[in-house]
Design brief:
Elements lengths: L7 H9 L4 E5 L23 H14 L3 E5 L9 H10 L3 E6 L6 H10 L3 E5 L5 H8 L4 H14 L4 E6 L8 H10 L4 E4 L19 H13 L17 E4 L4 E3 L9 E2 L5 H7 L1 H8 L6 H4 L26 H14 L3
Parallel strand pairs: 1-2, 1-7, 2-3, 3-4, 4-5, 5-6
Antiparallel strand pairs: 7-8, 8-9
């Protein structure tokens, strides 16, 4: 099998099955109503402060280096800064994923004191009309922009996360310009995912063929060429995710339930769960259609994309296949 490209530290962690990168979803509550959100019909009792700290402790003991704190909207947790400070005390590098609307001067002060690895904010356009067509929330654009400007003023490392969808594809080049002017990294994800209950509702916002072709042509012309995964991804090898309810998954995008930290320690789940054991036995050849595809190096396939409607992760992703075919048109030498 062809292995996925790895940094040296990630490759070593993968070989030794160390959960180097962890995502802790602190809440599924959010103050926005994004049309593509995968957190459909969320309910249940969130991890308490004590329980969340125990998860952080167990991750530190297992060898985690970077902890991503997210939601929902993580800043809705009253104990967010207590939990983030605890993670820093355990020598974890902390990254916050947020929509930015709750970042005021007090929050910016607290984040600066925390010294996070980075703060990643979701921004879907450069106008309120486009951004709020995605978030479904009036004034969310100006509040997110205010949060970005505060974080930059306070000297924090900021990254913009976005998606190319029907509502915003025409503003993606302008968003790229916005980020370049401010020297901000732009993580432009190529895919949408089913909801946590398996609904394909977010797929209604996938780009139509003409827009996808135009977007990928811009991607190539602007130096934002995307790559593909040529092996089995790191989910369950050196990546792990924990939900607000204590559920353990290989990745927050690959929601195969491996266990619950309320029932057994995270380390036992990581080492012994049948889900993790099965994932670790997979090779590229198990993905029969994908393994023989000539476009594999151009394909942004994520196994989490195929979980909707009960499909196996071994199936191809139709949206990834389409992206790979268009990329071939623009990336291949004439």
């Amino acid at each position: 099998m062809r292995e996925a490209p790895q940094s040296d530290i990630a490759a070593r962690a993968r070989a030794r099955l160390i959960p180097l990168y962890a995502t802790l979803e602190l809440t599924h509550r959010c103050n926005l109503a994004c049309v593509h959100c995968l957190l459909e019909g969320h309910s249940g009792e969130e991890l308490s402060t004590t329980e969340a700290k125990e998860v952080i402790d167990q991750l530190a003991e297992a060898g985690t280096l970077e902890l991503v704190l997210t939601g929902g909207e993580a800043l809705l947790r009253p104990d967010f800064f207590d939990l983030a400070a605890h993670a820093r005390e355990r020598h974890l590098a902390v990254t916050l994923l947020t929509n930015g609307t709750l970042i005021d001067r007090r929050a910016a002060d607290a984040l600066k004191e925390l010294r996070p690895l980075g703060v990643h904010l979701s921004l879907y356009g450069v106008t309120g009309a486009v951004h709020e067509a995605v978030t479904g929330t009036p004034r969310s654009f100006e509040r997110t922009l205010a949060g970005i400007h505060l974080l930059l003023e306070w000297g924090l490392r900021v990254q913009i996360n976005s998606l190319a969808m029907r509502q915003n594809v025409k503003e993606i080049p302008l968003l790229d310009h916005f980020c370049r002017e401010r020297r901000l990294p732009l993580n432009l994800a190529p895919s949408l995912f089913p909801t946590i209950k398996g609904s394909l509702k977010p797929y209604a916002y996938l780009l139509e063929d003409a827009d996808l072709e135009g977007h990928l042509a811009w991607e190539e012309a602007s130096g934002r060429r995307g790559g593909g995964l040529e092996g089995v991804c790191n989910a369950g090898f050196c990546n792990v995710a924990v939900s607000p309810l204590g559920e353990v998954f290989p990745c927050n995008a690959l929601r195969l339930l491996a266990g619950n930290v309320r029932a057994e320690p995270l380390g036992l789940i990581w080492q012994g769960s049948p889900v993790f054991r099965w994932l670790r036995r997979l090779t590229l050849e198990d993905f029969e259609v994908c393994a023989s595809c000539s476009l594999l190096s151009l394909c942004p396939r994520c196994p989490g994309q195929t979980l909707g409607k009960g499909k196996s992760i071994l199936y191809p992703s139709s949206q990834a296949c389409k992206v790979a075919k268009y990329r071939e048109l623009f990336y291949r030498e004439p």
